[in-house]
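Ticket #4471: structure output looks truncated?

Reporter: J.K.
Steps to reproduce: submitted the chain below (261 residues) through the standard prediction queue, then opened the result file.
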Amino acid sequence: MPFPHKVCVVTGAASGIGREIAWAFAAAGGDVLAVDRDPVLLEQLADEAAGAALRIRGAVCDVADAAQIARTCDELIARAGRCDVLVNNAGILRRGALEDLDDAQWDQVLDINLGGGFRFARQLGRHMIAERRGAIVHIASIAATQAHGGCGAYSASKAATVALSAQMAVEWGPHGVRSNCISPGLIETALSAPFYAVPGVRAQREQLVPLRAIGTPRHVADAALFLASDAAAYISGHNLVIDGGLSHALIGQVPRPQAAA
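Returned output as attached by the reporter:
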C-alpha cells in the first residue's frame, strides 16, 4: 500500500513495534516523523533510514508532557503543512499487584498510555479536522479485553485506549477523520526477547496460539499500514486484533473432564 508523500507521525518510534511501523510507512513512501524520548536510538533510526533513501526525521518528545507535544506538532505543521497519519504507539508497563500499586505508578501508566495518545490526537486532530481528512491508529493490546494478573494499570489503560479511539471515530468522522485501534497479542521484540531466550518458553507460548507462532513487529506494522491507507477508507472505530487467534483460544485452556466414552 503506497503512501507517496503522506506526512506520518509515529510515537514510541525508536524501538520495537514503533520502529517497525515508522520504517514500514517510510518504505511505502511516507514522510515520517519518529517521536521518542531516546535521542540516541532516534538518531540511529534516522541515519539508517537516510542510508536506505527513506524519509524519517526524529523528534525527541515525552508524550507525558503536553508542552513538548504541542511544540513537536507545531514544528511539524510549520515544516510540512499538514499531518495525514498519526500512530499512537508510545506506552509503558509497570508490573505489580493492584493492591501494591501506588498512585504515582497508576498515574504514570495512564498518563503515558492513554493521556499521551489523547494529547497527540487532540493536537494533530485539529489540523486533520480543518483539512477534512486524516487517519489515526492507536496501538492497544489484547490486555484491553483479556486481563491478566500483575500488569498494574496496563490493562485499564489499553481498554481506555480502545474506547477513546471509538470516541474519536464518532466525533471526528463527520470531519473526514478516521480512528482505529490495533490490539497485538504475543509479539517478540527486543523487550520481550529475554523471555523467549528461556528454554521451553517459546514452545509453550506457541502452543497457546492457534497459528502456532509468535508475532513479529512487522505483523503489527502491516496492520497499521492497512488501517491508515485508502484501502481502509470506510473503516473507523474498529479494534483490529493481531494475535494469531490467541484471544479466541484462551477458553480452551480451561480444564475439562474427559468426555464419556
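Triage note (M.O.): checked the attachment and the full C-alpha cell line is present. Residues 38 and 58 are 10 Å apart (CA to CA).
Status: closed, working as intended.
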